[in-house]
Amino acid sequence: MTTNTELKQQAAQVTFKSPDAYLNDGFVWAKEQALAYAHFGEDPVGLWYEAALPNRQAFCMRDVAHHSLGASVLGLSPLTKNMMIKFAENIAKSRDWCTFWEITKADEPAEVDYDSDEDFWYNLPANFDVIDACYRQYLWTGDTEYLKHPEMNKFYQLTMEDFVQTWDKDGDGILEYYREYGRRGLATYNEAGLQPLHGGDMIAAQIVGYLAYSRFLELDGKTEQAKLYESKARKLEQFYESNWWNEKAGRFYGALLQDRSYLEAYNAEGTFLPLYFGTVKNLDLLNKALIDLEKNGVANVEGKTYLPDTYYRFDRNEQGYRELKELVDPALDRRDYPEVSYCVVGAYAAGLMGISADGQQTITTLPRLTEELPWAELSQIPILDRTIAVRHNGDKETTVTSQEGEAFTWKAAFNSEAEFLIHNGQQVKAQTEIAESGIVRSFILVEVAKGDTHQVSIG
């Protein structure tokens, strides 16, 4: 078992290098700032990091779900898991199958958000967002406790069944909010006071929550149940694309109001989070919505932390790079908000460097550098119980080094349609796939033994 001292040491070793001194300094700042918010067991709640407003000494569901990737890059996944278990074990019938939105270092619900089981702050997308984050944690870490832990399993199942049945009063398959609920059960992450019946992000969160649960079930050998929840997700995807598109504005509606009319105005999280979650499959609508996002932007720094993730996901590398550099700008308002540093670290790794994993033994890389950044290297990355280094030279050459841990399969991918790739000087027949952005990607699979270095490039 890794000790708290070892966790701190591991996190401090992760390094980023490039010819861009501003970007390098930004990573150093983000790493040090994130570690300053990490707590290694000295409090009653156990391992945790701050994931709420500064000085709250607490962590909330939305923030933890979004912090979690950056935390994993820093080797802080045990902290994330402990917090996820805390959310899971506090789901309760007395709260209509909600858990505590925000938990303090004293292992109690935060007083600012919770008065009683009848009166507390809660955003309904959070249960699904947490389940999706748990699945993404499994993919990065390979930690099967996300699949097997009894409290986690209970939380997944209660959310999919009792939580949905309780909050979907009209039986249309989507959770809704009514004004008599007060602050209990908001159907969006947009906290600007509109309080709609549905937020677009509510539907998107349900979709990714269903898909994550489906994949957990499949891993557990429950194939028929897995198909059921994947079917629920696909039906909601189709419903969202068919019914929520605003042709006049060139974007999706962000909210369905209490009178069941759509809000015409841009609606921040209700509008852009479905893109972040990957809800939109129609490429024409997706591209129009991404153009609209670039035009409208976000209202606050919390929203801004989602933008690198969103742009890089759909191979809009220039926009992702711009947003990443803006987030590390020392002049950025409220840069000390914990979400900024954690999400910046995650965006360097998964966005710029295109690193991901499958929960088993395959690690993928995809260079997303721009002409402004000719090379970049991230090293001492903890992933799938291994430690690796990744260097991209432009968007056509990648080198991977096994720094610690057992052998793994490297999926070396590039955003280019190539018949062959060059592996350590030898020509290898490439495979291709279609990315979410519609781009054709070429890749090969390379077996990386313990301590080995391999290079793959486009010939």
Q: Which shape, going by the Cα principal axes?
A: globular
Helix content: 40-55%
Question: Uncertain regions: pLDDT < 50 for 5+ in a row?
Answer: none
CATH fold annotation of the largest domain: Glycosyltransferase
The tally of structural domains comes to 2
Q: How many individual β-strands?
A: 24
Q: Spatial order of the strands in the main sheet?
A: 1-16-17-18-24-20-21
| Oligomeric status | single chain
Count of alpha/pi helices: 15
Radius of gyration: 21 Å
Could you give a short account of the major beta sheet?
Answer: 7 strands, antiparallel
CATH architecture title of the largest domain:
Alpha/alpha barrel
Could you tell me how far the N terminus lies from the C terminus, measured between alpha carbons in angstroms?
A: 44 Å
- Overall SS class: alpha+beta
β-strand percent reads: 15-25%
